Amino acid sequence: MLQPVISTINHGTYLTGPLEKAFKEVFPPDYVLFGGNKNSEGVSVKAAVTTTTRQSRVVVLSNYNRKSPKIPLNHFHRPGPEKEMMLWEAARATSAAPSYFRPFAHTASEQVYLDGGIYHNSPILVADVESKAIWPSSRDRQPDIILSVGTGIDPRKETAVDTSVAVEALVSSVGSDLPIDRDRRSYLEVLMRLGYDHLINGLDSERAWNEWLQIKAPDPRNERRYRRLNVRFKGPVRMDKFDDIKKCRDAVTEQIDDTEILKIADQLISSCFYFHFEQEEIRELRNGGYDCTGRISCRLFGDSLQKLGAHLEKLSGPPKPGHFRPSFVIREIRPNRKRTRKLLEIKPDWPKTMRGEKKFAMDVPLVLISSERAETEILLKLRPDQEDKDLFPISGFPRRLQDDHKVILQERWGSQLIPHKLATKLNRSTTLSRVLTGGIRERDDSN
After folding, report:
1. How do the domains of the chain map onto residue ranges?
2. Largest CA distance in the chain
3. Residue 36 gets which letter from DSSP?
4. What is the pLDDT of residues 92-114, one digit of tens each?
5. Angle between the N-to-C axes of helices 2-11 and 182-216, in degrees from 0 to 180, rounded to the nearest 10
6. Burial grade of 347 (CB within 10 A; 0-12, 13-18, 19 or more)
7. How many helices (H) and strands (E) does the chain have?
8. Which partner for 50 in 116, 176, 216, 427 could form a disulfide, CB atoms 3.0-4.6 Å apart?
């Protein structure tokens, strides 16, 4: 009875030729996954997908390189140039859903890949581990935003047991009657997992997200940095049933809150902006505080920046005194004390510059920092009815700007801690500042 199931999964229900042709139309067939296709005008976006080998090994395919963590969760695939995947091949490998399409055999690496969702229907854990490996200096910081988008769940399956438990029981029951070695047992486990996952994959995705979020345990101030969007269907939806697409769209239209979508959009826009400053632009004051000047820039380029400029223009009122304009709110976090607050309006000419010259760099005249332990917050206000508690911070905030100042000095002088008085003197060194400035830009850009 098992043999027909294995045969169907190995060969697939549908032809793979049309699927691969479609991938090549979307992803140019000469584009490699890693290196060689970089757009010099745009930002280097890190992208990765998961896939699975016949030996039940989870593999991360990516367009970037990074150091291996001390305890790797998955296998990070970074072969030599002669074995590198093409972009369309990575798409084929991660979507090689057995029982629908046959496994993807990558000739150069002599490896066979199956659907990436076998073990990670919701790849949030993989994404978390990868982000820490890519940006190790940011591992202890809160993310600007983590947005997880589900593919829908069937509420009738919410009492189902965990996939791993069910699969182990199935493999044990079948394996007790069959003489199978470890490799075949692993592949059998993959097949069983696939059959079971196709019934409750939505539920497992929700469970994976909730368990991961419980481990992260963000405090109330940071809970809204972690977002999950999903819908519940009234009944099961088959992956290959084209007629059910309307049912999926209707569920999204009925259940997704427009207010929630608007908040997420505002949060994503806010995270596109970041603050940076030159070494000589932060000074220690006699009262133990600091003052700092710098610039707010945008990490978007080209057409994306033009579209953001058009959006900011749309949100602005007529260019007359008293009319609302999007603005940055700069304040110090001072629990149980009155907060100092500065408002920097985005003048009407800035959105025009974003659309025409495709650039944005807004001077911040002065930020006052009351003490060495004080945190600064820069928020973006996009609508006149928003209160401060509803605003979202720009990238990397809140943080202690004076710590950035010390980090730069430590990066320049190795692990040796620079005495405070010497650090203040070094502030005034224009030559040194030119050597050290790049660190803060790279740090903020990578958040």
Report:
1. 2-256, 270-445
2. 82
3. S
4. 999 888 778 888 999 888 889 98
5. 70
6. middle
7. 14, 15
8. 116
Strands (E), 234-340: 273-276, 282-284, 290-298, 327-333
pLDDT above 90: percentage of residues in the chain: 38
pLDDT tens for residues 167-187?
454 445 444 444 445 555 555
CB-CB neighbours of 193 under 10 Å: 23
Q: Is the pLDDT of residue 380 over 90?
A: yes
Counting every residue, how long is the chain? 447
Residue 205, H or E segment: helix 182-216
Interior angle at CA 421, CA 418 and CA 423, nearest 5: 45
Provide DSSP, 383-404. STT--GGG-EE-TT-SB-HHHH
How far is residue 118's CA from residue 190's CA, in Å, rounded to a whole number? Answer: 7
- 3-state SS, residue 59: strand
One DSSP character per residue, 60-83 reads EEESS--PPPSS-SSEEE---GGG
Q: Are 346 and 312 in contact (CB under 8 A)?
A: yes
- Residue 37 has, within 13 A of its CA and on its CB side, a CA count of 14
Dist CA 122 CA 163 (whole Å): 13
DSSP 3-state percent helix, strand, coil across the chain (nearest 5): 45, 20, 40
Question: What sign results for the dihedral spanned by CA atoms 139, 144, 150, 156?
Answer: positive
- CA–CA separation, 59 vs 66, rounded Å? 15
Between helices 401-412 and 438-445, what is the axis angle to 10°?
Answer: 120
How do residues 50-96 score in pLDDT, each as one tens digit?
A: 998 877 788 999 999 998 877 777 788 787 888 889 999 999 999 88
Strand ranges for 205-272 from DSSP E = 226-229
Omega of the bond leading into 335 within 30 degrees of 0 (cis): no
